[in-house]
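Troubleshooting: if your tokenizer reports a length mismatch, compare your output against this known-good record of 166 residues.
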Amino acid sequence: MSFAPVYGPGSRALILGSWPSPKSWDMGFYYGHPHNRFWPLLARLTGEALPAREDVAAKRKMILDHGLALWDVLASCTIEGASDASIRDAVPEDIGFLLARAPVEAVFCNGAAAYRLYVRYMQPVSGIGAVRLPSTSPANAAWSLDRLQEAWGAALGPYLGKKEVK
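Known-good structure output:
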């Protein structure tokens, strides 16, 4: 089984990856590879401080404070290392479970593999079209953090809830 989804009652936008990398498994949370740009990108998009790599609670809080949800398309699979191209025996997560618990209006896929898997396995259930975003993986070196911020910001911007000031 993959990691549990991160969601709350204000989660309007769902960000989906394909499957956790070995570094993520080692850390026990999403986007655990130290060179993956997901968390630095999310910090830029939300205006939050970048959480420490091991600070899972701060990462969860960042997701929830800004109206997001985070999950992977696959519940299980056979994969070689972190190579999405090697995925076999794919078993999707139950998107209906999440949609019954969070008011998700939009789906964003982190890279081509997540998008392809979502369209195949989850979209027929959810009925929600997805936006394919450039991968934050270190393997996607053609995209700088600035370029990722521009693309992700344009797509996610309307859904990023603002943190309440108390």
